[in-house]
Specification:
The complex is a heterodimer of chains A (about 240) and B (about 425).
Chain A (H helix, E strand, L loop, with lengths): L1 E11 L2 E9 L4 E7 L15 E5 L13 E3 L5 E5 L2 H10 L6 H4 L5 E2 L6 E3 L8 E4 L1 E9 L2 E8 L4 E6 L3 H10 L8 H10 L1 H7 L5 E6 L7 E9 L11
Parallel strand pairs in A: 3-5
Antiparallel strand pairs in A: 1-2, 1-4, 2-3, 4-6, 7-8, 8-14, 9-13, 10-11, 11-12, 13-14
Chain B lengths: L1 H26 L20 H15 L4 H4 L7 H10 L8 H5 L11 E9 L2 E4 H7 L6 H6 L3 E4 L6 H15 L9 E5 L9 H9 L6 E4 L6 H14 L5 E9 L11 H4 L4 E9 L10 E10 L7 E5 L5 E5 L1 H23 L8 E4 L4 H11 L10 H4 L6 H14 L9 E7 L3 E9 L1
Parallel strand pairs in B: 4-5, 4-6, 11-12
Antiparallel strand pairs in B: 1-7, 1-8, 2-3, 6-7, 8-13, 9-10, 12-13
Classes of the chains: A alpha+beta (about 240), B alpha+beta (about 425).
């Protein structure tokens, strides 16, 4: 049995993609449990920070999704670690301070509009953590997008936010029952209190992931943003 | 009233054109245009990634920077985008006359380029000699970058002398005098002394004491920054005549003792100058109206080139030539596409492309990437090397000189596109007047 500290739960259409950390003998590495029939889970009733027991096949997935392992049985929750502790473990897993180090390959910009991608044949992994000098979330045409500056001073713009908790927070913020001008109020929150809450948090941390290959490229996305949003923040805007 | 309605209709056409062009760019040229009210995400025409990419392309092309925000809580449809474009009061749609490149009424905010010039360092050095000085294999600059020779400043030449000479020539070309200048706007990536370069030009040219002197940065993007400031000064009524000047002497900064040849060996010395006025020149067919500018910064390439002063007089240079080359081609092509969409001037009908020229090889590659003849890019850097902030100016002057060979009514628009460390980017267009 493998013990995984769940660190990523991302929305992929109607399903969820999950990544956890495995504490090996020499290092902490990311593992993406997948079912034998799909890369994501239609039902995943667990939270980040939970440690789950699972049974995984030893073979890796095809590059760049080398973290994939087929789960042969269900998950069983063992225990839970605090958010700051989970972020601490993430810092000890795959990390990079530069763009080229994220997936150990070149990063390409979309030649037409926005977005950044890698070539599946060049990328060596599909998930990586990074420290950020600054970070901004923005609602663009109803889609949540992130722009961030790495320690190297390099910038990633318009990353789709797929973090389940942050998307749930956005949905709650824009829920009809919250009155008028919801999008404008949410944007004001993102431009003010959000920035302070995130950047002043001592365990602030970001993980960038790659989509599955689509039309020969894998797009970069914001898989995880620590700290996670808190429900009582909704009362602030 | 009728004129106002016509203007509205033109604006509507421009918005529609921008939206259609950007949609085709995102979805592919073979994709039929969806109905205006169709939700592009719900109907599966675009995924959420492509939807945002499409919006960003429309923002760049229209100059309306917060379109994505205006579309929150709206369907992801073309009708929503058009409505947001219409309701935005920050749009900077080019005027009808500007877009078409034909003479017409002159608005109070119009700015015209009425004179230009360019000078190079007078010492021409074969690239093989530069290879040797930088201790590189002989032939490297020629074979790898396509540079045949470099223009270096001779003894007695400096940013001041080269730039002042360029301004005087530009004034002469426009049949103007230095006393007419309301502002001098200077840019240089090699002059870091005080008094600043614009102040030195002010004294050297003996302009009026109340002529302003301003230095702007941006390195290789400096010319576009300076032209945009000049246009704004004229548009605001603060100036009638502005001299924009670039001047760079790399050969005394990027020396073999301070930087590697793969970087320092690429650069030459030169200057360019342009006269920008609120009205066209007196001779018909000699002026160009300056269109809109678009600017931005692609920070993902920030690490590809970084230069910082070191204690003790050295330079700390971070230069990833391969990454920078890729970024330069991608970005310049993207800027040209945005200028094309925004101006409604097809790149095929452009007379010249005055772009930054990192080296001749990349220039050829850029022409190929853009699908236009390499002849439309005046290949200055082949014999001078990369002139830094003066590169785009040298190319623009050459494009204007080439156009002057044609009859007035045969001249075509000129596109400007340049880059600077950051990665800063900018573009604009000129239409013959």
């Amino acid at each position: 049995m493998t013990k995984l500290l769940i660190t990523e739960i991302t929305r992929m259409g109607p399903a969820f993609c999950v990544i956890g950390l495995e504490h090996g003998q020499q290092r902490i590495q990311s593992i993406r449990p997948v079912s034998s029939t799909a890369n994501s889970w239609l039902h995943f009733p667990y939270q980040r920070g939970e440690i789950l027991e699972c049974s995984l096949t030893p073979s890796c997935g095809p590059p760049p999704h080398v973290e994939d392992r087929v789960s042969t049985r269900g998950f069983r929750k063992c225990s839970t670690v605090a958010e700051n502790e989970a972020a601490g473990y993430l810092r000890k897993a795959e990390c990079s301070d530069s763009l080229s180090g994220l997936f150990r390959c070149r990063i390409y910009e979309n030649k037409r509009g926005s977005g950044t991608h890698v070539l599946p044949t060049e990328a060596r992994r599909s998930i990586c953590g990074c420290r950020t000098q600054n970070l901004r979330l923005e609602l663009c045409g109803n889609e949540l997008r992130a722009t961030l500056v790495l320690s190297s001073g390099e910038l990633l713009r318009d990353l789709p936010v797929v973090d389940r908790d942050w998307l749930d927070f956005m949905d709650a913020a824009l829920a009809e029952g919250r009155g008028a001008n919801r999008a404008a109020r949410f944007e004001r929150f993102l431009n003010s209190q959000f920035h302070y809450k995130i950047m002043s948090c001592p365990h602030h941390f970001v993980r960038i992931g790659l989509t599955r290959p689509y039309r020969d490229v894998c797009w970069l996305m914001l898989d995880t943003l620590f700290p996670l949003p808190q429900t009582d923040w909704l009362e602030e805007f | 009233m009728a004129r106002h309605s016509a203007r509205l209709a033109e604006g509507e056409d421009s918005f529609r054109l921008i939206v259609n062009t950007c949609f085709r760019g995102e979805a592919g040229s073979s994709m039929p245009l969806p109905g205006d009210t169709a939700d592009l995400i719900e109907t599966g025409v675009l995924d959420s990634m492509a939807w945002v990419s499409f919006l960003r392309a429309v923002e760049t092309a229209s100059g309306i920077s917060d379109l994505g925000s205006d579309l929150n809580e709206q369907p992801a449809s073309i009708a929503s985008i058009l409505a947001a474009l219409r309701s935005s009061n920050k749009g900077s749609l080019p005027s009808v006359d500007e877009k078409r490149g034909v003479a017409g009424d002159i608005s109070s905010s119009a700015a015209f380029l009425t004179g230009s010039s360019c000078v190079h360092g007078s010492r021409v050095v074969p690239s093989e000699e530069v290879d040797r000085v930088f201790r590189m294999p002989v032939g490297k600059l020629r074979n790898r970058a396509g540079i045949e020779s470099l223009a270096y400043a001779a003894e007695g030449e400096s940013e001041l002398t080269l730039g002042a000479g360029a301004i005087e020539e530009a004034l002469h070309a426009a049949s103007s005098g230095a006393q007419e200048l309301d502002w001098i706007i200077a840019t240089s990536e090699t002059h870091h002394d005080y008094p600043a370069l614009a102040a030195q030009f002010h004294s050297r040219l003996l302009v009026r004491e109340n002529c302003g002197a301003l230095d702007v940065g941006g390195a290789c993007l400096g010319l576009l920054n300076a032209l945009a400031v000049a246009q704004s000064l004229i548009g605001s009524g603060a100036a009638r005549t502005v001299a924009v000047v670039t001047a760079d002497v790399h050969s005394r900064v990027l020396t073999p003792e301070r930087v590697a040849g793969e970087f320092g060996g690429l650069f030459g010395d030169g200057a360019s100058a342009f006269l920008v006025r609120g009205e066209p020149g007196s001779s018909l067919g000699t002026s160009y109206r300056i269109g809109d500018f678009l600017f931005g910064c692609a920070g993902q390439y920030a690490a590809a080139i970084q230069v910082a002063a070191r204690i003790g007089g050295g330079l700390e240079v971070q230069f990833d030539g391969e990454a920078l080359s890729r970024a330069a081609i991608t970005r310049l092509e993207k800027v040209i596409t945005a200028v094309e969409t925004r101006s409604d001037i097809s790149r095929a009908s452009v007379g010249g492309f005055a772009t930054h020229q990192p080296n001749p090889r990349l220039l050829t590659l850029l022409a190929k990437q853009c699908g236009v003849s390499a002849d439309a890019f005046p290949a200055i850097c082949k014999t001078t090397g990369n002139l830094g902030s003066s590169m785009c100016g040298a190319a623009l002057h050459a494009a204007l000189q080439n156009a002057a060979q044609s009859e007035g009514d045969q001249r075509k628009p000129i596109f400007l596109a340049s880059l600077g460390p950051g990665l800063l980017f900018g573009g604009a267009w000129l239409t013959p007047w």
